[in-house]
Every structure is written in structure tokens, then in C-alpha cells.
Amino acid sequence: xxxxxxALVIGGGIAGPVTALALARAGIRATVYEARDSAAAGVGAxxxxxxxGLDALRIVGADEAVRxxxxxVPGVVMADGAGNRLAEFGGFPGLPPTLAMPxxxxxxxxxxxxxxxxxxxxxxxxxxxxxxxxxxVTATFAxxxxxxxxxxxxxxxxxxxxxxxIDPGAPGPxxxxxxxxxxxxxxxxxxxxxxxxxxxFGRTFIGYWRLPDGRVCWxxxxxxxxxxxYAEVVRxxxxxxxxRLRDLYAGHVPGEKLLxxxxxxxxxxxxxxxxxxxxPRWHRGRMVLVGDAAHAPSSSSGQGASLAxxxxxxxxxxxxxxxxxxxxxxxERLRRPRVEMVGxxxxxxxxxxxxxxGDRPAMPAPEQMFAPVHLHxxxxxxxxxxxxGEDRTGKSG
Length: 397
Fold this sequence. Notes:
The chain has 397 residues and is an alpha/beta fold. The protein has helices at 15-25, 51-59, 63-67, 103-116, 161-166, 230-234, 238-248, 255-260, 292-295, 304-321, 324-353, 366-374; strands at 6-10, 29-34, 46-49, 71-72, 75-80, 85-89, 99-102, 120-123, 127-132, 137-141, 146-149, 151-154, 174-185, 196-201, 205-210, 216-223, 262-275, 283-284, 287-289. Helix content is 32%, strand content 27%. The strands form four sheets. It has a seven-stranded mixed sheet. Strand 9 and strand 10 form a beta hairpin. It is globular. Residues 5-173, 279-319 form the FAD-binding domain.
């Protein structure tokens, strides 16, 4: 197969628009097709974008658009459920701070930036099948329309349709043992310095940071052996979930105060914490996966969005320099070791969130914990060869 000049990108969340922007920089024309009717307004709760994600966004010129909707939280404090500080970290010199923001705000910022840069995003286009030929791949959507390009890229998330087209036996997301919630507390009596993200472990886990308006945004876990779907979770009134969380966090510092200062109307229901197990096949023929469709770590990693952005940029580098089959293979070699390392670490954190690690979980020094993820840098100008990634270091090039 010859070099790529056009691409269909399925999914308009995080990886989709960034992939299209990176492909455009590589000289490849891409159109994004999103099943929803708009840029996911109101979807999801809060997330963070780490320095490595912002570094990758800088390559496609989207970093400033994202900074405009994010709150800088460069500091990290680890504590136990009794209020004892275990470790502190102020970030690495020279790196941008981690940003916290609503997921929907990030979706909108990336979609708006991509559109302004000339990327076409078609909404209301749900993929149902794809057919390959020696000349290209044709996507068919639920409305009966079709589109054809040299390659098709599945950026369609943890319940990816493209993943099942590549491999009908591919695994789906797996449950992490907890239900996830978030909310806004009045913050009275809770020590939370501006610009610091706190992680407090006990019988279970709560994270929190102070918002510019003085309130405290928190995210918490409710251990549950049997999973519930998101639809099942939201059918339960928020007041009932808040009552269960208050019972669980009784005596927890500062979880008890945060939950006591939260009104049910300010509770965000995220649903079951899920992650993707190792996906055996990332590509087949002219189709390839990127972002959560291939490697969704649980939210415990704090890296889901950042890894998706990194992979989008790396995939574009590979398609810039190699024909599809070689590009997809090089892309997987470059990315799989890194994303599976992060995913495995997040799975271990889930045990602490489910109350299985005790009040004082063992942890490395923050610098050791964050260095492998935050210091990662993609050299856009470095050429990609067919042997890229064969040393299994996870470095770009």
C-alpha cells in the first residue's frame, strides 16, 4: 500500500479531533465522524490533563485552547484517611502544570479548535460497518451515507465499534470494583490550598481540590463487587448515593466534612470505573485504533486523556512517514509498552480505591511516580522508521 493522503476518523471526543489536527500537520486530509449530534455537551464529570498531554497538544497547536478551559493544579499531596500527609510533589521544573476541567469543556475546546483549523467534523454519523479494498476503505453510517478514504481510524472510545470490526473477538471494558462519583462541597473546615490536588486513602479513597470560587471539587469511590451500568446507577436518586457515601466516609479526614458540605444537587454520577484490558489487535488492513478504543486506563491513572492525545500525535507521525501496514505496526510498537505500563499502575491504584490497600498504601516517592508519565516527550520532527519502537523502551522515534 502506498503512502496515505486521506483518513476517516471515527469519534469526536478527545483522540478524534487531535488525530485529525495531527494528520493535517502531516499533510493528510482527515474528516471526523461523531455519533452524537453535538460535541458531547454535558457528557462526563471532571478530568485532568497532565504535562505530557499538554506537551503533545502543543505539537498540533491546541494547548492554548485547552489552557483556556482548565484550572492549573501543579501540586499533589498524598494523605491517609486520618489526615496524615504521606508525600508532596510540586511538579517538575520547566513543565506546564496539570489542568483540571470538566470533560465536556475539553471536548468542546478540542472540537472548536479543530473546526477553526479547517478540520471537518460531521455529527450524527454513527458507524455501522466498513469495507476494505486494495484502494481504500469505505465506512457506512446508520443514516445510510458512506465515506471513503485511504485509512479508517477508530477513535470511538472504550465501547469502540471499530475495535469489533478489526477483531470480532476483541475484549470489552472491564469493571474496576468501584462506582465513581464527584461533587462540589462548600469547603468549610477543609484545608485545601489553591493549585493543589489532594489524594486521601482510607477504607476507600477521595480526591479533591479547591476551585477558584472557593468551593471544593471532590471525586470519590464506592466499592461494589457486582457492577452496575451507568443507566442503572443514574436511576438511583443522587441523595441516596450521597447518603451511602457519607456512611462509608464517616470518620474519614476530610471525606466526612466534604460529603457533609455537599448538596445532592451538586453530586456528579460518573458510574462504574472501567478500564480496557490489553487489546490483542490494534489494527487490521486499513483500519487502526487510537486512544481509549485501544488503551483506556481507569481514571485512577490520571492519564486517560493525556495518553489519548499522545497516541493521536504518534499515529500521525507514523502515517506521515510510512505506508499503512508499516505505519500501524510501528505505531503499536511505539505505544503499547507505555500505555500498558500506565494501565497496570492504575489497576493497582484501584485496589486502594476499593479499600484493599489499608490506610497507608505503599507508594514510591512522587518524583519516581510521575517522572515516567509527565516527562514523556514526542519529537515530531524525528522520522519514523519501520523498526520504530523495537527496543521496547516506549520512547518516540
